[in-house]
């Protein structure tokens, strides 16, 4: 929808040039799978062809709604958007895990580790998988396996009569409506092998942020969430009038999910090519490996978004910091820059910046 109050909002900066692939897709434009107990929708390379490293699923469960027992060939990283849910899992050594997840919490299940999700109340969450070709509809589900295993084999495996399987589903259940589970303590199963050695849950929003003028950043990777071996992330807050500084990531592509507010991102890919995209809550953005970019808050409320990477660590390179730690004479001669710019450079990295006189409103003239 065109913003009539800001008619230039959809006009890219005059510095845009060249051709880049599409770096934006919205979950609102995807197909929804609706079941009793919840719904899901996904963005993969089918919807966003450039996004080869990660894929995302937006899912909602009712109170008591269950994402059935299942596992994936890919790792699963998730951020709880609203509401509360209960997750369960068992690892390859028979150690189990059960935890309640609230808004701002994340979880991570390694590839091949079986798990489940159940709504304690109406909830919605983002699931991210470490393969852009992933589709949640190709999940390995317990109901689907039972439905495609002969009853005599099931009987032999579990040591019960074939009649015990007369009521099993004839196809994959995926999501179903169940009863709201009781207190966590009432559902705990004491495994003789103990609990998993590394927790599958991390309280990201409760993590102490790295604050800078104009916002904050919370980084989560294998350093502070050791189980998360293949997905690293940052929760970024940008206040009105501020921006995520000019930077790039030296370890992998960036997959973004916009949580609240609206923003504008320009991506520079070299050889004179740069392109600008506008994002709102519910949109997915993508930044190819090592390409320079920045994100402006173009709205009147705080912009929150997630940066995610197929990596065990979060890494970024600050343009400002790079210049500050390079001999001044070299930077000055390279850019034909004056002392005002050179003297303003900071050796400390500020992921989000906001200075007096800076305006988020696009300057096209």
Structure description:
The chain has helices at about 140-145, 150-160, 185, 320-325, 330-335, 340-345, and strands at about 25, 35, 40-45, 55-60, 65-70, 75-80, 85-90, 95-100, 105-110, 115-120, 125-130, 140, 175, 200-205, 210, 215-220, 230-240, 245-250, 255-260, 260-270, 275-280, 285, 290-295, 305-310, 315-320, 350-355. It has about 375 residues and is mainly β. It has two domains: about 30-140 and about 175-200, Jelly Rolls, CATH 2.60.120.10; about 205-355, Jelly Rolls (Sandwich). A seven-stranded antiparallel beta sheet has the order 1-22-19-24-17-16-15, with no helix packed on it. Strands 2-3-4-11-6-9-14 form a seven-stranded antiparallel beta sheet, with no helix packed on it. Strand 20 (about 260-270) and strand 21 (about 275-280) form a beta hairpin. The radius of gyration is 23 Å and the shape is elongated. The mean pLDDT is about 95.
């Amino acid at each position: 929808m065109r913003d009539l109050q800001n008619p230039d909002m959809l006009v890219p900066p005059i510095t845009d040039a060249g051709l880049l692939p599409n770096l934006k897709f919205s979950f609102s434009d995807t197909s929804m799978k609706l079941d009793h107990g919840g719904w899901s929708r996904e963005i993969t390379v089918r919807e966003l062809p450039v996004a080869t490293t990660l894929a995302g699923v937006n899912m909602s469960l009712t109170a008591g709604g269950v994402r059935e027992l299942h596992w994936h060939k890919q790792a699963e990283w998730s951020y709880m958007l609203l509401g509360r849910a209960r997750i369960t899992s068992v690892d390859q050594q028979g150690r189990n895990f059960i935890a309640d997840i609230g808004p701002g919490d994340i979880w991570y299940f390694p590839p091949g580790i079986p798990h489940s999700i159940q709504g304690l109340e109406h909830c919605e969450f983002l699931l991210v998988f470490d393969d852009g070709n992933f589709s949640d509809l190709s999940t390995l589900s317990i109901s689907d396996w039972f439905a495609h295993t002969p009853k005599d084999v099931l009987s032999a495996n579990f040591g019960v009569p074939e009649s015990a399987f007369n009521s099993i589903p004839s196809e994959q259940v995926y999501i179903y409506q169940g009863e709201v589970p009781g207190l966590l303590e009432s559902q705990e199963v004491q495994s003789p092998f103990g609990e998993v050695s590394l927790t599958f849950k991390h309280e990201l929003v409760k993590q102490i942020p790295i604050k800078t003028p104009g916002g904050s950043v919370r980084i989560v990777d294998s350093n502070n969430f050791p189980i998360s071996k293949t997905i690293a992330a940052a929760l970024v807050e940008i206040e009105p009038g501020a921006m995520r500084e000019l930077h790039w990531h030296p370890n992998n592509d960036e997959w973004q999910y916009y949580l609240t507010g609206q923003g504008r991102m320009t991506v520079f890919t070299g050889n004179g090519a740069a392109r600008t995209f506008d994002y709102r809550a519910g949109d997915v953005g993508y930044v190819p490996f090592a390409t320079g970019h920045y994100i402006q808050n173009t709205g009147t409320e705080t912009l929150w978004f997630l940066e995610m990477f197929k990596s065990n660590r979060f890494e970024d390179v600050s343009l400002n910091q790079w210049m500050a730690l390079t001999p001044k004479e070299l930077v000055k001669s390279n850019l034909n820059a004056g002392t005002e710019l050179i003297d303003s450079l900071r050796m400390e990295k500020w992921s989000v910046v906001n200075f007096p006189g800076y305006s988020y409103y696009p300057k096209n003239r």
